[in-house]
Specification:
Order of helices and strands: EHEHHEEHEHEHEHEHEHEHEHEHEHEHHH
Largest sheet: 8 strands, mixed
Distance between the termini: 17 Å
Structural class: alpha/beta
Strand order of the largest sheet: 3-4-2-1-5-6-7-8
CATH architecture of the largest domain: 3-Layer(aba) Sandwich
Number of helices: 16
Strand content: 15-25%
CATH topology of the largest domain: Rossmann fold
Number of domains: 2
Radius of gyration: 22 Å
CATH superfamily of the largest domain: Glycogen Phosphorylase B
Length: 400
């Protein structure tokens, strides 16, 4: 364990994101024994002037419109969120490398100046910088802030995004110049270890105080209480980048007596999907994180029908730990991470036919013994264990 250290966290994810967030939970766990300043990264000018009603942007919009003058929010005794009262230059579509790098450095300098002002106000000393997938806006922060240790954390594969023209070049350079690189899957570690030998894997954690099968619960949410069983359920963003629509369509067609419940926001592709025409498919929309266990408790089988692509192949699906903590049987796509970590606790499908057959099997084999086995395994993936791994990487680097 590390105690009494100061951490600065930058991330692609804004603090006010509505869905569960690995980096927020990571920062909160670190703040139990250390001080943490979390940068709520600024909007770009292009986002600022778009009609963007996403809830994670509301506080930043209000700040820019002078509806709020509070730049720093104290979350707990040891943690603060720093908001930015300015926008940065929109550079994502610039193809010219020289121009992109020039403007990106300008953005980084503005962010670094803002960060330095407030971490000095908080009397942070020799901070550890943790960069969570924020390849562009944090690219120069090691040089500009001169932290004690700089850590790059790859949790998602963002290089496939067509708007991230310079991402591969910059990410590999960022990984190389960072003191430590951490990832959440062996697949990512194997890739980045070739660039930086100080690359390590840490599992994501699960909030066991929230995902607790023994915790007394209120009545089932009204929008799921009337749905007939068996319920085959999914929680998370329903996006074409990750979710295999074909698996779900095949399931809906072949098992009309199964209720397929999808809890989470949809992208444009899925709002137009023919799944909406099936009477046994229910899109329940976005829910507050604290209410997700109430939905999972109503599922008879939990699913994660991922596509196989560069985004998902090495991705660590936090929802699997959440499902396991609730003791639920799981059927998921056979990805590399699922094989490495969860193969003994989930049924893994390669085809749409596998997917249906394994769901049939999961409904028949949900014994008290298997429920306890799942819960026990989930309890090895706590946030405390996850952060202690990161601390061990820092200590190893300090003594190397």
């Amino acid at each position: 364990m590390i105690k009494g250290q100061d951490f600065i966290v930058t991330s692609l994810q804004p603090w006010d994101i509505a869905i569960g967030s690995t980096i927020k939970n990571t920062a909160l766990e670190i703040s139990k024994n250390n001080r943490v300043l979390y940068l709520n990264t600024p909007l770009s000018y292009s986002t600022r002037f778009q009609a963007n009603n996403r809830p994670e942007n509301k506080y930043r919009f209000d700040l820019l419109k002078n509806k709020s003058d509070k730049l720093i929010r104290q979350i707990n005794q040891n943690m603060w969120v720093l908001d930015c009262p300015f926008c940065i230059l929109p550079i994502g579509k610039i193809k010219n490398q020289w121009l992109f790098d020039l403007l990106n450095k300008i953005n980084n300098k503005r962010i670094a100046k803002h960060l330095a002002k407030y971490y000095k106000t908080l009397e942070f000393k020799d901070p550890i910088l943790l960069i969570d997938n924020d390849i562009y806006r944090s690219f120069y922060l090691k040089e500009l802030l001169r932290p004690k240790i700089s850590i790059y954390y790859r949790r998602d594969y963002v290089l496939e995004n067509p708007l991230w023209i310079h991402a591969r070049r910059l990410e590999y350079t960022l990984a190389q110049k960072s003191n430590i690189v951490i990832t959440n899957s062996p697949h990512f570690t194997n890739e980045l270890k070739r660039i930086n030998p100080h690359t390590y894997t840490t599992n994501t954690g699960v909030d066991l105080s929230l995902y607790n099968i023994h915790k007394p619960s209120d009545l089932s949410p009204s929008d799921i209480s009337s749905i007939t069983h068996p319920i085959i359920g999914y929680t998370g963003t329903v996006t074409n980048k990750r979710i295999n629509e074909e698996f779900l369509l095949h399931l809906a067609q072949k098992r009309p007596n199964y209720s397929i419940v999808l809890v989470g926001p949809e992208d444009l592709f899925f709002t137009q999907s023919s799944l909406h025409h099936f009477k046994n498919v229910y899109f329940l929309g976005t829910k507050e994180t604290q209410n997700l266990p109430k939905y999972i408790s109503n599922f008879d089988v939990c699913i994660n029908p991922q596509k196989i692509n560069n985004i998902t192949i090495g991705n660590y699906p936090l929802k699997i730990d959440e499902y396991l903590a609730m003791g639920k049987p799981i059927v998921a796509t056979r990805t590399e991470t699922m094989i490495h970590i969860f193969k003994d606790y989930a049924l893994l499908a390669e085809t749409k036919e596998d997917f249906i057959n394994l769901i049939d099997s999961a409904l028949l084999t949900n014994t008290p013994e298997s429920i306890n086995k799942r819960i026990e395994f989930a309890h090895t993936h706590t946030w405390e264990n996850s952060i202690n791994k990161i601390y061990s990487f820092i200590k190893h680097y300090n003594h190397a």
